[in-house]
Amino acid sequence: MSKVLFAVTSHFKDASGWESGCYVLEVAVPYFHLIKNGVEIDFVSPLGGRVPVKQCDLDAAKVKSFFADKMASEKFYSSKLPEEVDSNDYDAIYFPGGHGVVFDLPHCKGIAKIAGEIYDKGGVVCAVCHGGAGLLNVKLADGSLLIKGKKLTAFSNKEEEAIGTDQKVPFLLETALVEKGANYSCVANWQEYVVVEGRLITGQNPASDLEMAKELVKLLKEK
């Protein structure tokens, strides 16, 4: 059985009180697709334990189904610490979005190390939406950045501006990815868009989470 590690945020409020956290829909949709295909899933976060979510993100039917699933909710709310994770146990790592990710995952050396190790041993690295922030500082065994020179996508600057959060986030994700050497591309706001670059799979926004999961299953089955 393949195993996938979901790397989620521990951040909820910034200094101004702005709430962000994990966007659970981008967890729930891939979770159910992967489970349906026989994949085992664990969760890791910078601080471990309960993963923060905004109340308004709990209304979607898929999210309600996720929290009604005993195993899913228990794993989500008891995420592992990075030091509790052995990268050799996993075939892939997935970074879901939610604005919380941009505040903590780029600075979490433990999770970045796990992602690099999974990729180095032939595993898959995936991200959707703001989850791409988790890729910014992932390094490979040779010291190079995982994303340098690779085709990918993530939440666009135009999408950030459209929802009025471009002045709230600590950095614009599209800009940061380009500055790190990624070959970034996107489509119109809110449209499904997934980029597969070998064993790196990225989705632009929430509309892209299922297609990302489908591409991940394809690669896992090929292995």
In short:
By secondary structure, this protein is α/β, with parallel strands linked by helices.
The proportion of strand residues reads 5-15%
General shape: globular
What integer value in Å does the Rg equal?
A: 16 Å
Number of domains: 1
> Helices and strands: which structural class?
alpha/beta
The CATH homologous superfamily: Class I glutamine amidotransferase (GATase) domain
- In the predicted model, the low-confidence regions spanning at least 5 consecutive residues are none
- Average residue pLDDT: 97
CATH architectural grouping: 3-Layer(aba) Sandwich
Walkthrough of the structure:
Helix 1 links the parallel strand 1 (about 5) and strand 2 (about 40-45). This protein has one domain (about 5-220): 3-Layer(aba) Sandwich (Rossmann fold). With about 220 residues, it is α/β, with parallel strands linked by helices. The chain has a 6-stranded mixed beta sheet, sandwiched between helices. Strands 5-6 form a two-stranded parallel sheet. About 30% of the residues lie in helices and about 15% in strands. It has helices spanning about 25-35, 60-70, 70-75, 100-105, 110-120, 155-160, 175-180, 210-220; strands spanning about 5, 40-45, 90-95, 125-130, 150, 185, 195, 200-205.
